[in-house]
Amino acid sequence: MAKKKMHYIRLLRGPKLDTSNLKRPHISILLTITTDLGDSFLYPDEPVDLAISVENPTTGQSILLPPPDQIIDRPPRWTAGLRCLDIKVPIKPHLKKSDVTCTIRIHPATQTPPLGVLKGRDALPWSLARGSPAASKGLVMPVSVDMAKGICVPVAVRTLRLSSSKVQPQDQDTLDVDLEEDVGESIARHIWDAGVVTASYLGDACSSKEGICEILPMRKDHFNVLELGSGVGILGITLAQVIERAVAHGHTSCKTTVLLTDLPEAEERARSNIARAEVTLSRINPDGPTVTLQYEDLDWDEGRHGRFGALASARPWDLVILSDCTYNVDSLPALVGTLSALHAANVKHHEAEADTRTSVILATKPRHSSEQALFGLLSSADWRYNVLKSIPLPKLGEEDEIVDIYLLERGERNT
Ligand SMILES: C[S@@+](CC[C@H](N)C(=O)[O-])C[C@H]1O[C@@H](n2cnc3c(N)ncnc32)[C@H](O)[C@@H]1O
Q: Where does the record locate the signal sequence feature (predicted)?
């Protein structure tokens, strides 16, 4: 039987508008459906039909050619063995380039509204409804892209809808985390399974006051979080929104700083996502956001020697977070060295205080047994660790994939 994993609809280039025949204009979309690593394509037992919506972002009106004129024999269909799919989407006749400003959403046809959005609950086995498409077929992450006056910038958007698994969807307030990623291939500039699953977990587990207290080491009135290898920023931005929601609900009154860090190639996308998140933070807390999001470059080869930028040096870090950063065994010594150097910097900041603990939430989807080297390095550097949560990915097939979320700690527990 085919292995089914978590998959992503990925655009191979920005969609193109063709108005050369004004009576039959169309948008042409070239996409693939791959794993996060891009190392294998979706190979489904049953074909996966795709649905595409094309709407004006201001009016919400569709510009698709409506039925019965829309002569499509069947929806675009992904079948086993495909590596890419070329789709021509007919839009209303006589639209000129300058008329076509729209959001294009591509998602599995089985998806229930909201379209183009991945529901975090579908990534968590304990909240999956029986019979839901994710439970039976695995998860395919939708994608959206904006076209302005007939032109697409090569930026796709993933939307993750976070909610609590304890209450019914209709009864709760949800949080949408919007993340831009590059069209095409890149390591730092798109999202990964461990980030998606951990963000969904945090959205669920931190939806109550007890959950926040249990998971986040908020010991003072300021809470400082640093993310290593943040990529597009899925984990840090999710945590920022989750904490802002907790403040709005009166679950905490901490003032929080979340600093995303990565190599320079990640900066542009991370900063755009911070700008998007700042709008959401203001919406969550109309009195003014209490969470500050920042970005700074931090190369672990510098960090391991205690060489940090101005923002990373500015304060002690109560919590360090990272997801999917431990797959490259060669970079593990620099990564663990950076964690230890951050702890040493914390000890200096806290010289006058008894509590010098540093906590780390580390999420990983183990891909290879060699990654176990991480734990030897952590132990040698006096880090204590235990599994906070082990979450199987939603999929069918004989080979389980799992995201492990670890809690690491170093330092004294004197308080
Ligand atoms: C697989 S991505 C994960 C990105 C993000 N954490 C997520 O879950 O979506 C690994 C990240 O580690 C970063 N990285 C790799 N080596 C690094 C280094 N030496 N210093 C800093 N970041 C590094 C990459 O740039 C990339 O963004």
A: none
25 lines ligand 1 (CB under 6 A): no
* Residue of the CA atom closest to atom 24 of ligand 1: 188
CA of 297 to the centre of ligand 1 (A): 11
CB atoms within 10 A of CB 182: 17
Of residues 153 and 244, more confidence is placed in 244
- 400 and 194 in contact (C-beta within 8 Å)? no
Domain ranges across the chain: 7-162, 193-410
Output the residue whose Cα is nearest ligand 1's atom 3.
324
Task: Give 180: exposed, middle or buried? Use CB within 10 Å, 0-12, 13-18, 19+.
Answer: buried
Nearest to residue 209, comparing CAs of 164, 176, 264?
Answer: 164
DSSP 112: P
Q: What fold does the segment set 193-410 form as a domain?
A: Rossmann fold (3.40.50)
Ligand 1 proximity of 191 Cβ (cutoff 6 Å): yes
Cα dihedral sign for 42, 47, 51, 52? positive
Look at the chain and count its residues.
415
